Amino acid sequence: MAKQILVTGGCGFIGSNFIHYLLSGHDCNVTNLDKLTYAGNLDNLRDVEGNPRYTFVKGDIADRADVEAAFAAKIDGVVNFAAETHVDRSILDPDAFVATNITGTYRLLEAARKAGVDKFVQISTDEVYGSLGASGKFSEETPLSPNSPYSASKASADMLALSYFRTFGMPVVVTRCSNNYGPYQFPEKLIPLLVTNALEEKQLPVYGDGLNVRDWIHVIDHCRAVHMVLEGGTPGAVYNIGADNERANIEIVKGILAALGKPESLITYVKDRPGHDRRYAIDATKIRRELGFEVSIPFGRGIEETVRWYVENRGWWERIKSGEYAAYYEVMYKGR
Ligand code: NAD
Ligand code: DAU
Fold this sequence. Notes:
Low-confidence stretches: none
Distance between the termini: 55 Å
Shape: globular
Structural class: alpha/beta
Number of domains: 2
CATH superfamily of the largest domain: NAD(P)-binding Rossmann-like Domain
Bound molecules: nicotinamide-adenine-dinucleotide, 2'deoxy-thymidine-5'-diphospho-alpha-D-glucose
């Protein structure tokens, strides 16, 4: 019988890409539990709404009754993407980060334990490791040293999740991926913010000196890796996911301007993010060796296709940018 997978946060960027990935060619049914926060967008999954293998449940992972409703049907596996995810918002107000990322993960773990699931994949982030200097990479053994309320809440969730393996023998696996890019990313994050601002001939805000480094992976490669972990990850293990693709922010900014034929005069250096991590780099040897994961989308092709997606799906991001997000943008960037 086809497995029933509970995906949380499926209306967000990575969750919606993951649901598209699961429903195209993998033998499973999907329940999507999503609160529809500012980042959750039903438009991301409009094309699968009528699919008999897909069920949407609107609810909060931090609400016991909502979580129980999602577990009303038999659930075989859980992939927990639901989270508050934007570092800058966690600096403005950490409240929702603690509620969703910590309490929410706890509620899911409890429900999954009672349901006796075959696998619980906790989607974490490389940001739990903190910041690197000029050399070295994060391995799964790197001590956790989170620097923002966002990354600290994710590190807390990791510890809770792993405790459910050690204490209760629950088949929990934690993944820690580097920065994702691709279609359906909310335009508060660097790449869609740059592309959409450039298309609107608006300034491109670059924090600090623009030399902070991130390690970019296409969202579909992240989804492929998460699926491998869901199917074959060792219970109790942590897997780093990355594409060996370090770029300074300013390189990304200039590359996007060049791709769109826009002038570099749009670049504006602004006040740095407090506690801004300097560099992230992922050592993904373990997932390559144990699960055979290989990156399939080289950055050059991936970024070109991604820029084109935002050019061709202007209605998608214009609807977002004209709503609640406009008020956030004003607070975040005005006078910075
Ligand atoms: P996103 O902000 O685009 O989407 C988050 C989704 O979670 C939204 O649909 C939102 O409505 C939902 N959500 C938020 N709070 C909820 C709650 N209390 N109950 C139910 N649903 C809720 O996030 P994303 O960028 O797709 O990230 C998904 C996951 O991947 C997160 O756990 C994040 O920490 C992790 N991650 C992201 C990246 C990245 O580069 N974006 C990299 C590594 C790890
Ligand atoms: O590393 C994984 C993490 O990547 C995920 O866990 C987070 O959910 C995700 O938001 C992302 O975090 P970052 O802080 O790295 O992503 P963000 O897109 O916010 O910023 C990327 C870099 O660009 C960072 O160095 C800050 C810089 N930046 C960002 C914005 C929004 C700018 O220079 N200007 C901007 O306007």
